[in-house]
Amino acid sequence: MSKFDKHFKMSEEDAIDYIKEKLDYFDADADLIASEIGDGNINYVFVVKDNKSGKSIVLKHADILLRSSGRELDVDRNRIEAEVLALQNKYAPGLVPKVYMYDPIMCVVVMEDISEYKNLRTELLSQKIFPKFAEDISTFMVNTLLPTTDLVMDSGEKKDLQASYINKDLCKISEDLVFTEPYIDYKGGNIIIDENMDFVEREIYGDKELVLQAGILKNKFMNNAQALLHGDLHSGSIFANQKGLKVLDPEFAFYGPMGYDLGNVVGNLMFPWAYSKVLVGNEEFEKWVEETISDVIDKFVEKFNVLYDEIVTDVLAKTPEFKKWYLNSILLDSAGCAGTEIIRRVIGDSKVADVTRIENVDQRVEVERMLIGLAKELIKNRQEFLSGKEYMEMLKKV
Ligand code: ADP
Ligand code: MG
């Protein structure tokens, strides 16, 4: 009998008992302390550290109730996270935390402590530059996405994987918060500053073409089981330092269109860019972001093309015409999903600090309008964003 035979919401003390009982990781005489460091809305994250040896480990624990609102959320997300991290580590070694164990009863993923790397969103808020970012994140995406498609895998095996990563609850969150509510506020959840209310009424709710395109992108999100996505690849899921990066938190993973991941990365780079443009004027930083956005796209394309020729097995997909069509459709989705990500972070209820920390109302209005303008361009003219150059040109015009 162990107290961990039945699920309950763990405390810091429980985390210490848990790791001692479950894993032979620390020395018998270790002097362990635990702290809960979760900063999201969903789960609990404990770092357990041995004061003697300095060794540490991380436990990510899912409760049956959401951390923020207290409503229920399927704990299967924890299994999905554990399995997807393991899979990503196979395809992109070293770019995600190593998983040491997964416990379906307590809903715990025990993983490598990657505290050496810092939250990319926070780092970009202080205009830090990461020269290797485009290189590493493009590798991560190409290497984890393409191999999970049915161009590469046996189509039956791919369907089994797809079934295993049906992620109803978390997909529903994205369907609503990313694609539906920002355009039709049917739950009244949007949060819009008074000064931008008219602007949003006109430029978003009132733009029928935009609303249609959001619906088309949502339909793609729900019905194009192209690859096993990370599913939540915003800059708070990426931790970076000058050596490289680690991608965390794939609990939203499911089979969807690759452009959703690529678009998320690109869209999230535009927040600190707009912040700097309006509030700081750090030209070196802005230039780095512009080049990075462009490089993320171009390096994705370059690496995708190389890996495609190496690993695609589907005979019909091996024709150059198909390959070109396939990659183009990913790039279209990416531009569109970069746009939907930007809009949902500006007017939806799950905002980013890049916007909310702006205290001066006039500056906030300016940043929000700038971002919405970029997002609309990305969504409505997405067929034009087929390389990094088009992103660069759009940003240069602002
Ligand atoms: P949630 O899914 O609840 O949002 P995250 O996976 O985003 O949780 O983790 C929340 C925070 O916990 C992260 O922002 C990070 O600071 C910390 N964290 C998560 N996993 C690790 C890890 N393996 N090593 C170090 N810190 C981590
Ligand atoms: Mg999360």
List the main descriptive attributes of the protein structure presented here.
three-stranded antiparallel sheet, Aminoglycoside 3'-phosphotransferase, Chain: A, domain 2, 398 residues, binds magnesium ion, 2 domains, binds adenosine-5'-diphosphate, Phosphorylase Kinase, domain 1, single chain
Task: Show unreliable segments.
Answer: none
Ligands, deduplicated: adenosine-5'-diphosphate, magnesium ion
Helical content (DSSP H or I, runs of 4+)? 40-55%
Q: In angstroms, what is the radius of gyration? A: 21 Å
Q: Which structural class do you get from the secondary structure elements?
A: alpha+beta
What is the CATH architecture assignment of the largest domain? Answer: Alpha-Beta Complex
Mean pLDDT: 97
Distance between the termini: 64 Å
**Taking strands numbered 1, 2, ... along the chain, how are they ordered across the largest sheet?**
1-2-3-5-4
Instruction: Bin the strand percentage.
Output: 5-15%
In CATH, the homologous superfamily of the largest domain goes by the name: Aminoglycoside phosphotransferase (APH), C-terminal lobe
Q: Which CATH top level class of the largest domain fits?
A: Alpha Beta
Largest sheet: 5 strands, antiparallel
Order of helices and strands: HEEEHEEEHHHHHHEEEEHHHHHH
Rough shape? globular
| Domain unit count | 2
Number of strands: 10
Using the coordinates shown, work out and report the CATH topology of the largest domain: Aminoglycoside 3'-phosphotransferase, Chain: A, domain 2
Q: Can you count the helices?
A: 14
